[in-house]
Amino acid sequence: MIATIAYLLAVVLCASRGVLEYLIGKDAAYLIQVGGIVGLLVWYVSPTAIAAYFRDEGRLSFGFLVGMLFSTGLSIVATLALTGEFGPSYLFVFIFTLFIYFYAISNYQRRFVQPRVAYAGLVLIALIEAGVALAQQQNVFPIDLPGATYGFDNLRAPSLTGSYLHYPLFVAIAASLCGVDYLVRKNVLSGLACAVLSFAIFSALSRSGMLIILGTFGLAFVQAPIQFITRNAKLIVATVFATMAIMIFGVAVSSQNDSVVNVGTERIIGATDLQSDGNDGRTEAWEKAKSLVLPVNVIAGTYFGLVTNSAPEPVKQEFGVVESSVLQQILNIGLMGAIFYYGVLISVTKLASSASRISLCMWAALFQTLFYQSIEVIPFVFILMTLPVFDYVGGPRANST
Fold first, then answer.
1. Shortest CA distance to 329 belongs to which of 94, 34, 50?
2. Are 304 and 71 contacting, i.e. CB atoms less than 8 angstroms apart?
3. Which of 53, 208, 304, 335 allows an S-S link to 75, with CB 3.0 to 4.6 Å?
4. What is the domain extent for residue 138?
5. How many domains does the chain have?
6. Over the stretch 338-394, which tens digit does the pLDDT of each residue have?
7. If you average pLDDT over residues 171-176, what whole number do you get?
8. How far apart are CA 283 and CA 231, in angstroms?
9. How many angstroms separate the CA atoms of 81 and 1, rounded?
10. CB under 8 Å to 205, separation ≥6 — which residues?
11. Measured between alpha carbons, how far is 108 from 31 in angstroms, rounded to an integer?
12. Which alpha helices (DSSP H) does 186-278 contain, by range?
């Protein structure tokens, strides 16, 4: 139980940097957030369990890990040789990602986190996040937390995370997990939580969050279409009617009224239109990324820590951000390194049982990274890579089927 409490405290730190930032400033809040997560979980990282996993069933994963480390080192050298500088903060993100990866493997081997208790705690935290964000959007939350932005004439709330970029990713993965729990267990409370959290993401006007949630259910349908339809007929009917109601209401609202419903509907409808609001700037960033690519980037990155949101502002002004995790990794650690990196992330799906279908959440979140720059967001990395802790203790593991 202590290990479960430690994990949930890490989730709280993961999701509440905005509160710390409000009290002690951004830099100190970041250090406490990351340092606190590591301090809480380091006691459960088992070198013996990790070695046993790589030896017995994770040999390919170990190959991806070694390849990623090699590509990272090579890319730092190449970046220094070509630009005379590199971004140490980006290296820190890699180290944190590996730490969480080792923690997930240790839990896979030792099963020290109680999955249902951890699940209930995560859902509660996500609902609090959503409630605070909705209160902020209605201007009734008493504290002016940092990280709010305005887009499409609407407040884009950061909730307790301190960043609008962090909040929808965290809540969307929690909503995705609730959705999967409903699909597997038909737990009504999980279904309601998924609906509430999904509504919060829609209200936040977050396409990345919507993509994670819709991607989860889309993958569940593709995986077994007939079974999905027969087992979830009520869910499908309710979703269709809810979607129609939202869209009809959105169209009924004057186009000059930039309400959340109206703007949210437009953003869903225009999600695949590269010229729509929001996407036009993203495609420009993709084009700039393509112009930065060098032949050597097939083997190594030449912009390690330079093409990233974690770079200092003058560096971002010079190199820009590319609005795609895949393009970002190609520029930072090369195409080969990006393949190894995603191999490590994908290998996390093997830590969850096939019965729990938690891997659907992971695949949906990873698919989202093709279009959005989220792999350096601490809450996203943390929740994504620890999703296997919510797996059933007695369920068959994915690689055992």
1. 94
2. no
3. 304
4. 2-400
5. 1
6. 999 999 999 999 999 888 889 999 999 999 998 888 898 999 999 999 999 999 745
7. 94
8. 39
9. 50
10. 151, 152, 154, 156, 260, 263, 264, 267
11. 28
12. 188-203, 207-223, 225-231, 233-252, 260-269
Backbone phi and psi for residue 353, each to the nearest 5 degrees, phi listed first: -75, 150
Long-range contacts from 68-72, C-beta under 8 angstroms, 24+ separation: 68/333, 68/337, 68/340, 68/341, 68/343, 68/344, 70/340, 71/300, 71/301, 71/333, 71/334, 71/336, 71/337, 71/340, 71/341, 72/304, 72/333, 72/337
Q: Which residue spans within 39-197 are E strands per DSSP?
A: 149-151, 154-156
264-267 long-range contacts, CB within 8 A, separation 24+: 264/202, 264/203, 264/205, 267/152, 267/205, 267/207
How far apart are the C-alpha atoms of 80 and 265, rounded to whole Å?
46
Q: Are 78 and 302 in contact (CB under 8 A)?
A: yes
- CA triplet 104, 108, 114: central angle to 5 degrees? 90
Q: How far is CA 310 from the centre of its chain?
A: 16
User: Given this model, what pLDDT does residue 264 score?
Assistant: 60
Q: Are 87 and 310 in contact (CB under 8 A)?
A: yes
> Of 384, 256, 252, which Cα lies nearest the Cα of 325?
384
**What average pLDDT does the structure give for the chain?**
85
Give percent above pLDDT 90 in the chain. 46
CA distance 44 to 16: 23
CB half-sphere exposure, 338, CA atoms < 13 A: 22
pLDDT in tens, 87-109: 888 999 999 999 999 999 999 99
Nearest to 128, CA basis, from 225, 18, 50: 18
Integer-rounded Cα Rg, in Å, for the chain is: 21
SS3 state of residue 85? coil
- Please count the helices (runs of H) and the strands (runs of E) in the chain: 18, 2
